[in-house]
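Question (not urgent): is this output format expected?
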Amino acid sequence: MITNSDQQTRLIQNFPFLANASNEFQRIFFDAATQVHIPEGHTIADEGSECAQLALVLSGQVRVFKLAPKGREITLYRIDKGDSCILTASCLMSDTPFPAIAMAETELDAIVIPAQYARTWMTQYKSWGSFVFGLVSKRLAEVITVLESVTFHRMDVRIAAYLLAKADSDGTLKTTHHEIAADLGTSREVVSRTLKEFDKHGWISMGRGELTIRDTDRLKILATSED
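Got this back:
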């Protein structure tokens, strides 16, 4: 139960659907919600686990990914502040096991809603239903983009696009070859080989735990090239 007025205000600020909801739903929502803190690296849900609650992220980041039998990973999407997990919502509605792995990439503050409330609110309260269906639309587009990238684009094209998307305003990206490989669903060796080629051409420079883009235009050309 969320009774503190500051916590309630924070929730409304982070989740606009609450601001537009009726007073009745706000009261029911705050009564059902529980705030939790999750440490960095904690596995929130394993593949095949029961979906007993839906989490709404207040701060931090969650990575949702698939793990192949031989250990290779691919990131499906990330959940940030003001967002939730559509795979969990789908499992709650269909009463099926969680089909991926969800892990806290950073320390995480979240609100959890028990499954029985998340289900019944779908038909009882328009604001909640619109929020969940909005998640479906957003996440489905992201997962389709991942599928298209894996299916239709060469790995060097995907890595170039990844670097451009993840780099900060100075062109620097703090990451490891293993982390890039896990996000893109390939091996660390493939990532290392590709980055060495980029470095040799002068497009990037590599350091320990980070790399810097030196030729943004050339990477953009590669990232948008046709296979």
